[in-house]
Amino acid sequence: MSLPCGRFYTLGHISSLVYVRENINLWKICNPSTGQCFTLPEAKRRERFSWIRTFLGYDPIEKQVKVLTITGGHGGDNAIFDEHHQVLTISETDKMSWRRIECGTSHSPVSDGVCISGVLYYKAYKHYFPNARMMIVCFDVRSEKYSFVRVTESSLGAMEPETSLINYKGRLASLEMKRSFGEEASTSFDLWVPQDSGKLEEWSKHTYKFPMSRNEAIQDNKLYFSVVTGKNEIVLFPRKVSHPFYVLYYNLERKTSRRVEIRGLKELKGKKVFAYLDHIEDLKLM
């Protein structure tokens, strides 16, 4: 199914909805099940800004989808100014408008977000300095309040730039693909999980290697993470469509892998892939 958009970049996914950007000023919420899209109002920004990050969150209590947008940059004298934080509640019936919210801690987001049980998580540096220690930003979607977590020295590997924050059994986790030197083929991955389910400061690392036979190999060996299924399988996929096109399922308990062919994509060969295997079909746009 095609969407009524031009060239776009996906910014997030929640339940039945996908958040896409066609250009810096044109953002849309789309429902792949119906092919419907609607354009979001343009977010307010300062005259000068050097970056913009957007995240999609869901409040399971009020059953509301919200968009969080953060912009930042430099003033005319190169002095750093605080970011602009705004929230938009998605609605088909009410007029939508951006609301300014306060953060209290200046930070620069450096990762995609993942929303778990009404809390949006993403990685960020404090005060824009890349040599500063990475922290986890926790944004409560319902209250629209921020909190911040700094991991211990022994757990910094979970916050490396190459890691992705994921939903693992309803908990926040971190995953990093390992690639062979030179070929960049995916050979293994590290899964970091918090040692205490209620705290995010201490993490443990678990390494998994791909036991792939020749029949299980994928043409594009550089794989990317999609989702953890209810059967405790990590789903991995190539970045571009090939023919035939396969995704890889890795079972974390048995440490075995299997590949599954996705058919009907021959005409899309070479196109970039954004995989959302936890999509929930819903014929309502909202």
From TrEMBL:
Pfam families per UniProt: FBA_3 (PF08268)
Domain F-box associated beta-propeller type: 9-280
Name listed for the protein in its UniProt record: F-box protein DOR-like
Lineage: Eukaryota, Viridiplantae, Streptophyta, Embryophyta, Tracheophyta
Gene: LOC108842631
